[in-house]
Amino acid sequence: MSEKNETSYRTIADFAYDWELLIDQDGKPIYVSPSCERITGYSAKKFYKDPALLKKITHPKDLERLSQHIQDCIINEKQHKNIEFMIISATGQQKWIESRCQPVFKSDGSYLGRRVCHRDITERKQIENSLRKSEQLYREFVEGTDNLITQVNDQGTFTHVNHTAKKIFGYNPEECIGRPAFDFIYPEDRESTITAFNGWVKNKLQSTTYENRQQNQRTSQVSTMLWTINLHYDEHGNITIINGIARDITELRKAEEQLRLHQQQLKRIEQLSSMGELTSTLAHQLNQPLTIISSYAQESNRRLKNLREQQPDLTDAMEKIAIHSNRAGEILHRMRDFFSMKQLQKTPEDINLLIKDSIRLAEFDCSATKFITFDFDRSIPLVFCDKIQIEQVITNIVQNAIDATQTNSNKTPKIIIKTAINNGILEIIITDNGPGIEKSMLNNIFEPFFTTKPKEMGMGLAISRSIIEAHDGQISVSSEAGKGTQFKLKIKMGNKP
Amino acid sequence: MNQTVFVVDDDPEIGKMLSWLIKSIGATVEIYTSGEEFLEAYQGRQGCLILDVRMKGMSGLRLQELLQERGDTIPVIFISGHGDIPMTVRAMKNGAKDFFTKPFNNQLLLDTVQQALEQNSKQYQEQLTKDKIKTQIDSLTSREQEVLNFITKGKLNKVIAQELGISLSTVETHRAKVMEKLQANSLAELVQKILLVQDYSQ
Question: How many Å lie between the alpha carbon of B106 and the closest alpha carbon of chain A?
């Protein structure tokens, strides 16, 4: 080898980026590239001087592995061997080293030693590490949640689902993968879901929310799911991946449905009782003059018959007036019977719960309900009553209390609902701090069509009274101007249906 | 005896009609349009009461209960625009004489009014009798009352004399005085009178 060649080779080696080494058969360094200083903080000179320096700077937990590796290399001299280990640099930094080790032979084939390339892979390790952490985090999120998580490819088949698939679809995640996603949609919702999906793709929607029902293929159970969907497209605008996260809102929807039904029922009963009360009032009002006509006719007839001079035409006519007014009266009675709400559906009820339910269901203005406080006697046994009808009474009186307390803006509204048992009689007392009711009106407030509100029909309290009386109870009111109003409902306990 | 038929109905036209009707049987009628108004004017007089069930203010049923609580026995006849069963039962349980649904048959109502007045009159007479006997008993001396006690228990004069430690002739004198003061002609009559008052006092 010429001197020039020798120089250029050395130059290449000296300027190598990685830490290059040439080691003789005994493990002593023949050549150490200066780049060792960049990686370890120790100069090449130090490595020449102390062949054990590498082991000294090796991280204690890797030392045994490294020693074993070096031992192997000495025994199996023809082997290529790699190892990754950690060192602690002169400045105390931990660094990852990837070491590639290969045997070197002279041109005559005799074993010269080993060429070792140490590469600083700290940065790569860090990236790998954070990747692994992020992967772990992602797993925990995806597998730890009760939400259903799915990924669908451009073919519409599942490429990923989490464990919740078992509950919703009836298949384990691995069984789901490769199956068409639309197969798991509840048949009634399939077409509408596909239509919606096509719409999103057409409009290149990035993300959307959607509600549909999915069906468990093993148990046929249907779940209502609320989806958050992210759609991904390639550069040509073709769909590539659809990611979905879905929450099972079956119970929520069921509860909402029940609430809606109950409210509907309440409204229907309200209308019906309004109608009944109206009929009843009308019947009562018409019945009065009919009674008067009937009795006058009967008496007139009796007196006509007693006259010395008989008037058969007149007595006949009088009799007809009496008969027909009686008939009209009977029609009114029947009409009233037809609409009356006397058929109570009595069930044993926790009255405190019933009151809370009525406040909750009544759709009062939220700002108003916060002024309502409860003073419940918790020891009240179950009361036999018609739940819906009593709810109607409570709602009605509380609505009046709310209206009353809203009229005075200087005072903080206060409505108290108290329950108590007094000598076997259940008492519900509703007190407000509104402006009160004028004395002259107090006697009339339970009468039909009596109202102080221009938009109301004035049936509420009349119906309430009918309901409480149908429960063999009493409703009463007391009021003081400027202080408030108190309604008292009394219902006998222990009256069985 | 003065008897009045009191009519309480919040519809004054009904009141007028009933008044016209009842006057035909020769009774005195007073009409009121509320329970409160009636109570103020009534003051425990004799007669009977025709009462509307549902009225503004105090209901007919409440008024009936109120009278009962006061121990007033005036017969009550209900008239109602619509008599449902529970309401009727409640009224009858509280001792109502009858319950009519409007429109009603005049004759049946008038018959009931007659009966009610007779009932009231009988009650009144009984009351007078009882009051009289009570006054008579009160007029007895304490010794006479003791003797009366023994007589009503069926004890012979001899036994009474022994029990009270007095002579037989003294017992006989007391006995004659008791008979005289209670205006009884026979032992049977005397016992009857005493039973009437005892019943009353219970």
Answer: 6
